[in-house]
Amino acid sequence: MKRNFFESLIAGNQISPPEKVIKNLMLRFTEAINIEWYKKGQYFEAIFYSHQIEHIARFNPDGEIEEFKVNIPESQIPPLIVSQMHAIGEIMSTVVINRPSEKHYEIIVRNQVLQRLVVLVDEQGTILERNFL
Fold first, then answer.
1. Nearest residue to 48 (alpha-carbon basis) of 23, 24, 31, 66
2. Which of 22, 72, 101, 111 has CB 3.0 to 4.6 Å from 89, enough for a Cys bridge?
3. How many domains, the chain?
4. CB neighbours of 60 closer than 8 A, spacing ≥ 6?
């Protein structure tokens, strides 16, 4: 039986990760629901909801979490970073990227001429990347 494009796309991306990866996800995110697993290179990526908020977590082959991302409102961004972004334009969306030893913010900003930029900032407000979309 021949699959259509979308069936192949979905079937080709969803996988069953090793038990240690699943166990570590459930230990870290006890409220995780609607979990979808994907393989990205050597990493296992879970997209799921916890407390009605979408999360993306990436695990290495040993089952250790490498990072997790969460969409957050502007009110959860450090004030220094909010000020920096408002100098560029209007904050459209923000994702916090949590890694074991650092936290970054990926912020989409719309400037005065309605161009959208994605800005990657560390916790101290240092701009690490800035690109137009």
1. 31
2. 111
3. 2
4. 42, 43, 66
The CATH code of the domain that includes 62 is 3.10.450.360
CB 54 within 8 A of CB 47: yes
The CA-atom distances, in angstroms, between 78 and each of 51, 52, 88, 119 are 22, 22, 16, 15
Q: What is the pLDDT along the chain (133 residues), one digit of tens a residue?
A: 444 444 444 444 578 999 999 999 999 999 999 999 999 999 999 999 999 999 999 999 999 999 999 999 999 999 999 999 999 999 999 999 999 999 999 999 999 999 999 999 999 999 999 999 9
Residues 80 and 97 in one domain: yes
**Residue with the two structure tokens 């969306």:** 93
Instruction: State the CATH number of the domain containing residue 96.
Output: 3.10.450
pTM exceeds 0.90, yes or no:
no
- Domain range for 22 is 5-66
**What CA–CA distance (Å, rounded) separates 117 from 126?**
16
Nearest to 44 by CA among 36, 52, 54: 36
Asked whether residue 82 falls in the same domain as residue 119, the answer is: yes
